[in-house]
Amino acid sequence: MLALENGRFVARQAESRADIEAAQRLRYLTFFARGSAAYARRDADAFDDRCTHILVEDRRSGDLVCCFRYMVLPGGDEIGHSYSAQFYGLDALEAFDGPMAELGRFCVHPAWGDADILRVAWAAMTKVVDREGIKMLFGCSSFAGTDAEGYLDAFAMLRERHLAPKRWLPRVKAPDVFRFARRLKRRPDQRNALRTMPPLLRTYLVMGGWVSDHAVVDRDLGTLHVFTGLEIGTIPPARARALRALAG
Known about the structure:
Structural class: alpha+beta
Strand content: 25-35%
Radius of gyration: 17 Å
Number of strands: 11
Order of helices and strands: EEHEEEEHEHEEHHHEEH
Number of domains: 1
CATH topology: Aminopeptidase
Shape: globular
CATH class: Alpha Beta
CATH superfamily: Gcn5-related N-acetyltransferase (GNAT)
């Protein structure tokens, strides 16, 4: 059973239905609630029963401040059963040799902005990667809202520096997409690109992650998301050591 403490926060594996429902309420608050909406509803889907759920809590108050779920696949030939495969053509990744893990529904409570939350979450995922012998992490990295206009510098930076290798490049499958690699010719304003890029995606990229050449417009969640992949063997050694130090 995964459990990890780091400073003020503790990450642990969900142990009960109540734990999973707490994560589902936080997901609803993050992805769907607007204004003063509270934890009255839950975000749940069929993948919840197939995934392991990780909770990050404040040790002082016990408040749930972050959660995510992951699903381990024995190899690329199983990737068609992933959440991401609903939105992206992942045939090329079926040739990936080695265990994979899909990381999903990652969210941080909107009232909490402590950078250590993300560090603890990644430390927990590092433990999973090492324990399961994971060779690739993947998932959907989301931008808030469905209008790409405010993120054009971020998408231009993704096009210029972070597209998937051709051998793994996801194909278009969803009916509503923003094909930024084709449409954008602008040079990115780096400061604005980093400012508007989701923190989770920034973390993937500094570790050597890559993205699809298009974003899916997900009107159910109210997000734009890109397929994101991270081959564990390509993480810079210094960053890998730092993550393992956090993981303890």
